[in-house]
């Protein structure tokens, strides 16, 4: 278990074509506001929100990346260090749906396999939908991703998206810690003294016999006083 003094910070990138609602989603989640006015994101922007999950303090850093190709060289570098990702497309934008796999590859090329979720935004505009339910479900199945249909305007399922990513990331951390917990054993072959002969090493009254097994336990650093934030890169 991590010490209570440690705060988990998660960098989440929200990617997808322009005008799918990435900025609006982050604004809704972090500030609880919604605006109909579309303002193209230039480069990268981000907001933060502090939440608690299963007793863990989690600080989400949500990075809003430009979806336009002219900013691709800028935003690509900001994927680095990301620990979770939202792949977003719009109900009324066919091109954004077709581009999802491309966005997924761009992120994975920079950061590898991280928790991801597929999001179909603007489902309040279902009467004008250009993507069928079945093909959206099929894409999620193909990519093996959790799939949410959201409406930022109506604040539908937005919280669930980021809570799911937080749960996935915390589970990944816990799995890594669980793998470190068992005592690791390393077999020692022959131990040589300074004369080059095989024998027993005497160090501060501790003896290691030839062919014995030593136990290596993972070390863990405690923090005291004020909380410190850690971004775990897995």
Spell out the blueprint of helices and strands.
Elements: E1 6-15, H1 22-31, E2 44-53, E3 56-65, H2 72-78, E4 84-90, H3 94-98, H4 100-111, E5 116-121, H5 133-143, E6 146-149, H6 158-180, E7 184-187, E8 201-203, E9 206-208, E10 213-216, E11 228-230
Written description of the protein model:
This protein is of the alpha/beta class and 234 residues long. It has a single domain, classed as Rossmann fold (3-Layer(aba) Sandwich), CATH 3.40.50. It contains six helices and eleven strands. Strands 1, 2, 3, 4, 5, 6 and 11 form a seven-stranded mixed β-sheet that branches. The longest helix is centred in the last third of the chain and has 23 residues. The C terminus is likely disordered.
Quick tags:
234 residues, alpha/beta, two-stranded antiparallel sheet, 27% strand, P-loop_NTPase, GTP-binding, nucleotide-binding, Small_GTPase
Outline of the structure:
The chain is built from six helices and eleven strands. With 234 residues, it is an alpha/beta fold.
Mean pLDDT: 76
CATH architecture: 3-Layer(aba) Sandwich
Structure classification = alpha/beta
Cα-atom radius of gyration:
24 Å
Distance between the termini: 17 Å
